[in-house]
Amino acid sequence: MLAKRIIPCLDVRDGQTVKGVNFVNIREVGDAVELGAEYAKQGADELVFLDITASHEKRKTFVELVKKIAHKLNIPFTVGGGINELKDIDALLSAGADKVSINSAAIRNPELIDRMAKNFGSQFVVVAIDAEEVDGKWTAYINGGRIPTDKELYSWAKECENRGAGEILFTSMNHDGTKNGFACEALAKMSEMLSIPIIASGGAGNMEHYAEVFTMGKADAGLAASIFHFREITVPQLKQYLKERGIPVRL
Question: Rounded CA gap, 153 and 64, in Å?
């Protein structure tokens, strides 16, 4: 079995890392570059930097920030937010990002996934899906969880894979920031449908939640923000805990 990945996520606004609950009530945490460097030192497998207002405010992801991050980090990192066309992706990869995540743009223009995979390779393409469950149905949202779409979670995830996505980053809006655990049932169902890796996001509150998401949820990677930002759990503590429970991790 491949090692499970621990991925701190840094939601970035104006160069600062921020964190909210259920996509609202946002507060600042600290400098994105410095925080990312600290997680790399701690042994994080990867990092994700998301410009959380780029799509909403129709701005481009801040390429200069990506250059600073690449200069400081020695682990892979993914960048997302405000990406609408191939030249945006080219700029980010040229600035040093290892992977690029698209969300709103993928739903608005699904063929962008095909073009990304063809031009850069599937290994560089992460499709992020923010979805909310209401009465048993999962609906995908765009613009940072502000606007519902006609896309259903599972069929959309499968379409993304078919179009060439290399990974799916699934955030449960119901669980985001609540610290009540990941959406393991939905993740397990998605895992059975897809052959590409799934990154689980939304709901991490303790180390047990990570053990659950890797076993019950069958996720390939677990992403979290606040538990790492506020030092509730450190990456080394979490990896040791998982190792003791027989879950493969890189120490």
Answer: 33
Q: Which of 149, 85, 179 is nearest to 141 (CA)?
A: 149
Q: Is 130 a catalytic residue?
A: yes
- Digit-coded pLDDT (tens) for 113-167: 999 999 999 999 999 999 999 999 999 999 888 999 999 999 999 999 999 999 9
Domain, as residue range, for 209:
5-244
Segment 7-27 mean pLDDT: 71
CATH of the domain at 161: 3.20.20.70
Q: What is the pLDDT of residue 46?
A: 98
Question: What average pLDDT does the segment 171-190 reach?
Answer: 95
Nearest to 65 by CA among 35, 24, 29, 23: 35
Which of 45, 130, 176, 220 is catalytic? The answer is: 130
Inside any domain, residue 211:
yes
Q: How many independent structural domains does the chain possess?
A: 1
* Ramachandran region, residue 164 (left: φ > 0; alpha: ψ -120 to 50; beta: rest): left
Residue 98: active-site member: no
245 or 57, higher pLDDT: 245
Residue 249 lies in a domain: no
What single-letter amino acid sits at 134? V
Alpha-carbon distance of 239 to 207, in angstroms, equals 9
Which residue is catalytic, options 11, 51, 98, 176? 11
By CB atoms closer than 10 A (0-12, 13-18, 19+), residue 67 is middle
Query: Residue 102: what pLDDT?
Result: 96
Tokens at 5, concatenated: 């990945």
Give the contacts of 145 (CB within 8 A, at least 6 positions apart). Answer: 23, 130, 132, 173, 176
